[in-house]
TrEMBL record:
Alpha-L-fucosidase is responsible for hydrolyzing the alpha-1,6-linked fucose joined to the reducing-end N-acetylglucosamine of the carbohydrate moieties of glycoproteins. Keywords: Glycosidase, Hydrolase, Signal. The keyword Signal applies. Its EC number is 3.2.1.51. The keyword Hydrolase applies. This is alpha-L-fucosidase. Belongs to the glycosyl hydrolase 29 family. SUPFAM superfamilies: (Trans)glycosidases (SSF51445).
Length: 441
């Protein structure tokens, strides 16, 4: 069990052992599937962000911003018609949850978190209070959450739910959000909305006993007082459940960061970084290879996050028909190939004690993890001129060079050096990390 100072509640080991989850942003916005590939949250100038929002799931907001390119795109491509019509156009006719989950599992994911209701207020289940504004009564005419939950649990993965408590452009009816400094103006805080949202989260708990409650954008002020009771109900229903940190500081079993934003939350025994494979969570048809992680990027992101004690929640944005975009599938397939011989160096590991071995950026790229019996060195980008030789800086005596083994089975030679261990091995010059296992002394 891992204690965490935010809530003080021990975080179940399943979560800190899981290391890797898959986020799924799927909605009526997957029909429009359009945003400018502006860049990463936390890197793009906040003054530019909302008018040129790279998040395709924010389409309804972006098209309401005067002069935005999205507004022009919506006018020319969709005749400026109401966003709500995209729900009826969304058919999910090729949705095969078992196919998704098999790929997620092979890629090494141990939990899956789909959006149940995003900022557009459209529910992917027959959510109380939504009437026909959901995928059971319109569009797909399917309880997409129940179908995915069944497939996730049939594959022995954990199932969490994303819920946009803080923003709801239907029930909360607000003007478009124009700047992060004015985000609160876009958020409903009234008692009626608070009761509406509370009832829906309770319904998700009752239906699915979700292993993760992933709320987003805070919680309505009128409902804050009822959150302790909601969390108590959740933990009584799901004793091994975990709650994220996006409830307006009401509670957190763990902290989250998103792309390059809130990286200061990446500390302690339990945190999670989330991002899309590209610059968007919802499927964005304008993204090209230059905007996407490749498999090596995704593996390095996972290894870096895990080496520092975190989990990676990597997002896929399915198309409206229910297929995963081929370029996103390719990244997960690449991770699956790597994970086939590297899982032991990732899952259920922990960071090394501070100061015992140095990570290194650049050439070579080095990261470390450990479990009870082994220490793993991840190595990539070894310069050609080094002839496959790498000096791993470690506390003297930390590693036994005679126990060095490459997890992919290739040969590696190791010898004690003045600053730790020298290893010599072929094929470490690629961006894709290779793990070398050492027995702990
Ligand atoms: C996981 C992401 N969270 C942000 C809020 N920070 C959302 O605005 C975004 O659409 C996505 O759901």
């Amino acid at each position: 069990m891992n204690d965490f100072p935010q809530s003080g509640r021990p975080v179940p080991a399943w979560f800190t052992d899981a290391k890797f989850g898959i986020f799924v942003h799927w909605g009526a916005y997957s029909v429009s599937a359009w945003a400018e590939p502006t860049g990463e949250l936390g890197v793009v100038d906040p003054d530019v962000w909302f008018k040129h929002n790279p998040y395709a799931e924010w389409y309804w907001n972006t098209i309401r911003i005067e002069g935005s390119p999205a507004q022009e795109h919506h006018r020319t491509t969709h005749g400026g018609r109401p966003y709500d019509e995209f729900l009826d156009e969304w058919k999910a006719e090729l949705f095969d949850p078992a196919d998704w989950v098999e790929l997620f599992a092979r890629a090494g994911a141990r939990y899956v978190v789909p959006t149940t209701k995003h900022h557009d207020g459209i529910a992917l289940w027959d959510a109380p209070g939504t009437g026909i504004r959901n995928t059971v009564h319109r569009g797909p005419r399917r309880d997409l959450i129940a179908d995915l939950a069944a497939a996730v649990r049939a594959r022995d993965l954990r199932f969490g739910v994303y819920y946009s408590g803080g923003i709801d452009w239907y029930a909360g009816r607000r003007d478009p959000v124009l700047h992060e400094d004015r985000m609160d103006e876009g958020r409903p805080h009234e008692a009626a909305y608070a009761a509406y949202a509370h009832r829906q989260v309770i319904d998700l708990i009752d239906r699915h006993s979700p292993d993760v409650l992933w709320n987003d954008m805070g919680w309505p002020r009128a409902g804050q007082a009822d959150l302790p009771e909601l969390f108590s109900y959740y933990y009584a229903t799901v004793p091994e459940g975990v709650v994220n940190d996006r409830w307006d500081n009401a509670h957190a079993d763990y902290l989250t960061s998103e792309y390059e934003a809130d990286r200061a939350n990446e500390w302690g025994a339990c945190w999670e970084n989330t991002r899309g494979i590209g610059f968007s969570f919802g499927y964005n048809q304008t993204e090209g290879p230059e905007h996407l992680l490749d498999p090596a990027d995704a593996v390095r992101l996972l290894v870096d996050v895990v080496s520092r004690g975190g989990n990676l929640l990597l997002n896929v944005g399915p198309k409206a028909d229910g297929t995963l975009p081929q370029e996103q599938r390719a990244v997960l397939e690449g991770m699956a190939s790597w994970m086939a011989c590297h899982s032991e160096a990732v899952h259920a590991t922990r960071p090394l004690e501070s100061g015992s071995a140095d990570p290194h950026d650049g050439d070579p790229w080095v990261r470390w993890t450990r479990d009870e019996r082994h220490i793993y060195a991840f190595v990539a980008d070894v310069p050609d001129e080094a002839g496959g030789r790498v000096a791993l800086k470690t506390r003297p005596g930390l590693l036994d060079p005679d126990t060095a083994e490459r997890l992919d089975g290739d040969t590696v030679k190791a010898e004690a050096g003045p600053e730790g261990i020298h290893i010599t091995s072929a094929g470490l010059d690629t961006p894709l990390p290779t793990a070398i296992r050492f027995a702990t002394r």
